[in-house]
Amino acid sequence: MRTPFLCTLALFLLATSAFAGRLDLAIIEFTGTRNADELAQALSASDLTKMTDSDRTETKVPVLQGGWVVFAQSFGIVSGHFGNTTRLSNQRVDVSGTLEGSHLSIEITTLEGVKIGLRKYRESHYSGDGSVAGGVPRIVAIKQVKMKTANSYGQVISKEFTSVLVARYTP
Q1: How confident is the model over 21-37, as pLDDT tens digits?
Q2: Which of 97, 108, 91, 86 is nearest to 132 (CA)?
Q3: Is the CB of residue 100 less than 8 Å from the CB of residue 79?
Q4: Which of 5, 72, 118, 151 shows a CA-CA span of 20 to 30 A to 37?
Q5: Structure pTM?
Q6: What are phi and psi of 32, to 5 degrees?
Q7: What is the separation of C-alpha 17 from the centre of its chain, rounded to a whole number of angstroms?
Q8: Burial of 130 (0-12, 13-18, 19+ CB in 10 A)
Q9: C-alpha to C-alpha distance for 73 and 76, rounded to whole angstroms
């Protein structure tokens, strides 16, 4: 009685893994503002996994050099809803979204423990949607921020940075 059930379960698991794909995600921050078209073109010709294998982007492509890798993860996925939570040291990342065919809709929240005055956590939200067809890295969302902060001497400092949410789906 158990043998047919176990065989059926084994076949189901093999079939499910055969139809599963791999989703690679990365959040990369660059200082200054970056042109979205140039970034998209450079990313489509790059290996996302190798480039985000460190805290800084590892590439010889000038447009992608000097980026800070906020988050990078790869996991198996089947079409439909998915969710994942990762915790490393004092940072937690929650990933949730849907994959319908080659269309990805995703939300990523990073929560980092910091000691800044009375605040104990810094939370950042990234979300976007778009096509991930073709097995090449695609920009799902881009955010360009210009802000002014005061340093410890009371001087106002202007900062500009570009955050890019990149995804690659390989069926």
Answers
A1: 899 999 999 999 999 99
A2: 97
A3: yes
A4: 72
A5: 0.80
A6: 80, 175
A7: 23
A8: middle
A9: 10
